[in-house]
Design goal:
The complex is a heterodimer. Chain A has strands at 5-7, 10-13, 19-24, 31-37, 44-50, 53-57, 65-68, 75-79, 88-95, 104-105, 109-113. Chain A is mostly beta strands. Classes of the chains: A mainly beta, B mainly beta.
Chain lengths: 114, 114
């Protein structure tokens, strides 16, 4: 069964550094998402991406965050200057279409900011 | 009112028990409903979609009441392997630019013991 893949599985970085989290969505899916989950808390929506542009973003997704789909397969999340509170599990997800389709999640990247 | 609200849990039940989870959602325009399962420090995985007429998948039964904006999940004959957090997931309601944001409840933890 096709799956969403994310790399790396764990990223440790120092406060103020830039990080790029990478994802390869399922190949025939059209909608792409980033969610995050701080340890012990709920899964929170960050951003959705369709047709090479952001469709919607949450208030968490401020100017420090950006997404890109540079080559038609990879979907990346960049955090420009990480803060301690960015430490979380970041999940990439993709969806085939908007007609009652579920989200398919990758295994996640655990980001630790020290 | 929270967008998606679930029983706080945890539910501690013996093997073989029947357990029911409830969920309410605030956006009457929501059209897609799902139950996901999340194991500790893993990604959410789709358990089942929820249809208006109710649906069953083996030991799992999901119901939707649009008038009350209420979703339920019933697990019969609980197994040890059912121990996980169960997430109620609802789409944000309405479509614009092709997005279909899914919103997660905080989850209800289930612990099945021998």
């Amino acid at each position: 069964e096709p799956e969403v893949t994310q790399t790396p599985s764990h990223q440790v970085t120092q406060m103020g550094q830039e990080v790029i989290l990478r994802c390869v969505p399922i190949s025939n899916h059209l909608y792409f998402y980033w969610y995050r989950q701080i340890l012990g808390q709920k899964v929170e929506f960050l951003v959705s991406f369709y047709n090479n542009e952001i469709s919607e973003k949450s208030e968490i997704f401020d100017d420090q965050f950006s997404v890109e789909r540079p080559d038609g397969s990879n979907f990346t999340l960049k955090i420009r200057s990480t803060k301690l509170e960015d430490s979380a599990m970041y999940f990439c997800a993709s969806m085939m279409d908007r007609n009652n389709s579920p989200l398919h999640f990758g295994n996640g990247t655990r980001l630790t900011v020290t | 009112r929270k967008e998606v609200e679930q029983d706080p849990g945890p539910f501690n039940v013996p093997e073989g028990a029947t357990v029911a989870f409830n969920c309410t959602y605030s956006n009457s325009a929501s059209q897609s409903f799902f139950w996901y399962r999340q194991d500790c420090r893993k990604e959410p995985k789709l358990l089942m979609s929820v249809y208006s007429s109710g649906n069953e998948d083996g030991r799992f039964t999901a119901q939707l009441n649009r008038a009350s904006q209420y979703i339920s999940l019933l697990i019969r004959d609980s197994k040890l392997s059912d121990s996980a957090t169960y997430l109620c997931v609802v789409n944000g309601g309405g479509f614009s630019g092709g997005y279909n944001k899914l919103i997660f409840g905080a989850g209800t933890r289930l612990a099945v013991h021998p």
